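The material for today's practical consists of a large collection of protein records. There is nothing in a record beyond a sequence line and a structure line. Backbone structure tokens are a discrete shorthand for how the chain folds in space. Nothing more is needed to start thinking about how sequence determines fold. As an example, a complete record with its sequence and its structure tokens follows.
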Amino acid sequence: MTTKLETLEAALRNTLGDHISDLTVALGEVTVVVKASSYLTAMRNLRDHADLRFDEMMDLCGVDYSTYRDGAWEGPRFAVVSHLLSTSHNWRVRVRVFAPDDDLPVVASMTEVWSTANWYEREAFDFFGILFEGHNDLRRILTDYGFIGHPFRKDFPVTGYVEMRYDPQQKRVIYQPVTIDPREITPRVIREENYGMK
């Protein structure tokens, strides 16, 4: 007797075929890595094929692999990971696609397949700088419109480049270089010599 995961794995392999770069089953979850060149076709098949029917996109996010496995990662730097749900079959799948160019990461947009991809893709663009080809409104969604860089990239400084503050003389919000002074914070317990002694 085959398990539910084995049935899903077989259906994925049969439906996606050559679109799959890798398929793993671990910890009760199925992860499919699809080729960037056939990403849109594969995702349409996942939604429309009767054996799969992944009718809901639950999540989509960007990933920066530049420091993965302590820098031992040798594959492409940026990936887009989607989590799909089939309400008719009651199963889930994780789909990963790697952007082929690290300097200009571009993958196909999924907005015509699932409308929920719209804001998810805007967030991945905003935080990671991943471009989604075919997205009709790709602009920042969580950072300020004048923001420089992409804050979830591993090479983005923790303090950022600029800070924003209200200037009472100019009566407006202004940008200025970051003024955070690095300092060592020592817990009070260590600072006080007689702490805890009676």
DSSP finds four helices and nine strands in the chain. The mean pLDDT is 89. The beta strands are 20-26, 29-34, 56-64, 78-86, 91-98, 106-108, 131-133, 162-167, 172-177.
